[in-house]
Every structure is written in C-alpha cells, then in structure tokens.
Write a structure and sequence with these properties.
alpha+beta, two-stranded antiparallel ribbon, about 20% helix, about 30% strand, about 200 residues, disordered C terminus, 7-stranded antiparallel sheet
C-alpha cells in the first residue's frame, strides 16, 4: 500500500456536503483505505487576476489514504468523483462544485502531461497546508520539508470551520451533512489572499 494525500475544495453549491460526500466516495473506492482527515477551512477565491472577494468563498479539506492504486489510476477515479458532482473545466482557476487534487504519493516524484506529484504549488497554499497539518501533524511535503514549518513561514490565513473531520475515524467517514454555513472559528482573522484551486492534473 502507498500513502496518498488528497486536497478537496469547492466554492459552489452546498460546499460542506460536497466535501463530505467526496470524502465518503474516496473512502469507498476499491483499493483505498482512509487513514486521516482534516476539519474544513475557508479562504477567498483566487482567479487568474488575483484574489476576488466577489466570488464565493472556498471550502477546503485534506484526506490521507492508503491505496493500492497507482498515482494516475487514483487521479482518474478522483476525476470521476469530480464529474459526478457536476465539475466543469472551462475556466482555469474558475468556480467549481468540487476540486480533488493529488498532493503527494509516498515520496515519489512524477511529472507527466497529466499529473505532477508532489503538487507543484502545495507548499505555497495555506488552504492545502493548514488542513494537511490538521490531518497529520507530522506531515512532510516531499522535496520541501515539514508541513508545519512551511505553514509557519507562509502564514495561515485560512478560517477553521466548526464541523467534524471528514472521516469520523479511520474506515468510518462521516455521512454527508446538509448544512453549508456552520458557525466558524477564525484561525487568524484574515481572509486568504493567495487562493488557487491547484494545477489540474
């Protein structure tokens, strides 16, 4: 089995339910075993023109899984889950109902026309690092260093969402929740100024 880190994001529709349904779908994949998950965070949308506070805010999370699937196989099934949630890809860094990115896969380094791991911008994105650290306090981004140190250097400008982790416990993901606007506890009190939805593999 290999260890994979997957980032989840959405800024359209019932974002919280979309992330929880996606986490449940990932956990149910053949050859995949859930290991850990984060709470959700929020951040301001970033477009190709920069941060845009007029766009719906993003909800993000991270799940860690063990898998028998090879990286491209895993990415393909993640794209299938995105598609089942109405994901479209007309606009780069555009609004989306669901975004699933493969951030890391063991210590492997891959760069193909369809997949780059570790994710080339993960170390620059608090909305990836903060939930990843929440899911795994000892996390290391291959080639870059401990996630805790990367986040401390970058600064955490996400807002924690007051909801349970996406996986209730290993092997038992939470049921999707219907509410999209729970009470939030702010981490830093400042909105994200550096949001993109990650390179599409």
């Amino acid at each position: 089995m290999s260890r994979a880190v997957i980032a989840l994001g959405a800024n359209l529709g019932d974002r919280g339910s979309a992330l929880r349904a996606a986490a449940a779908a990932i956990a149910a994949l053949p050859g995949v075993e859930p290991v850990a998950s984060s709470h959700e965070v929020e951040s301001v949308a970033v477009t190709l023109d920069g941060p845009d506070t007029t766009k719906p805010r993003y909800r993000n999370a991270v799940v860690v899984v063990d898998t028998e699937l090879e990286p491209q196989e895993l990415l393909d099934v993640l794209h299938g889950i995105e598609d089942s949630h109405g994901r479209t890809r007309e606009v780069r860094w555009g609004d989306r109902t669901l975004d699933l990115d493969l951030i890391a896969y063991d210590e492997r380094s891959l760069d193909t026309p369809t997949l780059t791991v570790p994710h080339p911008r993960a170390g620059d994105r608090a909305f990836v690092l903060a939930p990843w650290l929440d899911a795994d306090p000892d996390a290391v981004l291959p080639g870059a260093g401990p996630v805790a140190a990367l986040l401390a250097t970058l600064g955490d400008d996400t807002e924690r969402v007051d909801e349970p982790r996406l996986f209730d416990e290993p092997g038992h993901p939470d049921e999707p929740r219907s509410s999209d606007e729970p009470t939030r506890a702010s981490r830093s009190g400042t909105p994200s100024a550096d949001r993109d939805t990650q390179v599409q593999s």
